[in-house]
Amino acid sequence: MAPQVLVVEDDDKIAAPLVRTLEREGYDVRRVAEGQPALEAIGTSQVDLLLLDLGLPDMDGLDVCRRAREGGFTGGIIILTARDGELDRVVGLDVGADDYLAKPFGLAELLARTRALLRRSAAAPAATAAATNAAAPASRGADGQGLRVDVQARRIWVRDEELAVTTKEFDVLALLDAVRGAVVSREQLISDVWDENWFGSTKMLDATMGRLRQKLDESEAPVRITTVRGVGFRLEDAADA
């Protein structure tokens, strides 16, 4: 099945060639011009990637991004913005975007970023909860009640509750968990989770870490993500943090 891409762009001059280009690449593409129809499409149908303009006529694209994530959308989100201020881009990453492109952008670059994000978003078929629990590695927390990362099913469990995370959040946490207690450098995280040739702001890593920390705290997970200044990050059991 072809990846499902939802283009949210109100400017026909931008949307039309973008949709044609994506369709030529073999994607199944839909386009809406406002934020509310985009949220409805995400809630009622399969969407693997959201290409999201910020300047929509009915609501700010940042609100669309935030509400999509709050509603449980875990697909990729690339923000398309004419706002060239770094603050707007950082806010976009903070509310759940995986990447951004400033207008005007080249279609070749957009396709490259689309391929990279969809490639990293490709998951093995989800197993049932029972099968996942049986296959998941034993918890490192007390009495088997800690954090469990199932890489094959791409699911994260805190005790008996599944933790809802985005694609990037999963990849970051899985990397840290694989070497729990050891430091993973910022460079390795960016290379493995985003792209070894990434040339954008590294603030997307800090934004992702911030969201992960908040989710782990809210779920009372017995682990902590610790910053090692000038080097990177380490995932520690709470007793050791």
Automatic annotation (TrEMBL):
Stored InterPro entries: CheY-like_superfamily, OmpR/PhoB-type_DNA-bd, Sig_transdc_resp-reg_C-effctor, Sig_transdc_resp-reg_receiver, WalR-like, WH-like_DNA-bd_sf
Origin: domain of life: Bacteria
Residue ranges of domain OmpR/PhoB-type in the record: 139-237
Domain Response regulatory: 4-118
Gene Ontology MF: a single term: DNA binding
Parts of the chain that traverse the membrane: none
A Pfam family: Trans_reg_C
Keywords: DNA-binding, Phosphoprotein, Two-component regulatory system
DNA-binding region residue numbers: 139-237
SMART domains found in the cross-reference section: REC (SM00448), Trans_reg_C (SM00862)
Residues bearing PTM 4-aspartylphosphate: 53
Name of protein: DNA-binding response regulator
Organism per entry: Nocardioides daphniae
Phylogenetic classification of the source organism: Bacteria, Bacillati, Actinomycetota, Actinomycetes, Propionibacteriales
